[in-house]
Amino acid sequence: MGILAPAKTPAAAVLGRLNREIVHILGAPDVRQRLLGEGAEPIGSTAEQLREHIVSELRRYSDVIKAAGIQAE
Q1: Is it the case that residue 1 has pLDDT exceeding 80?
Q2: CA–CA separation, 19 and 43 (whole Å)
Q3: Residue 7 has what pLDDT?
Q4: Entry pTM
């Protein structure tokens, strides 16, 4: 799971602050325990790490869909 923003959101002013705040919140023991209890793994990565993860997942699932011959109806 990740939090995304529109493409033209100011990086330094808005995205940087959002990232810092989210990482801080994910580090709170009560928040971390609640997320773990719900089966989530709180990481609190950078925007670049999230981008790389999304690209990797899209590539992986694209390959699975192609191999299985799945098509949209």
Answers
A1: no
A2: 12
A3: 87
A4: 0.67
Which residues have C-beta within 8 Å of that of residue 44, sequence separation ≥ 6? 22, 23, 26, 27
C-alpha torsion 9→12→18→19, nearest 10:
120
Name the maximum alpha-carbon separation found in the chain.
44
DSSP category for residue 15? I
Residues in the chain: 73
d(C-alpha 9, C-alpha 7), whole Å: 6
16-to-4, 10, 22, 45, 65 alpha-carbon distances in Å: 12, 9, 10, 12, 35
Q: What is the helix (H) or strand (E) element at residue 2, kind and residue range? A: none
CB neighbourhood size of 25 (10 A): 12
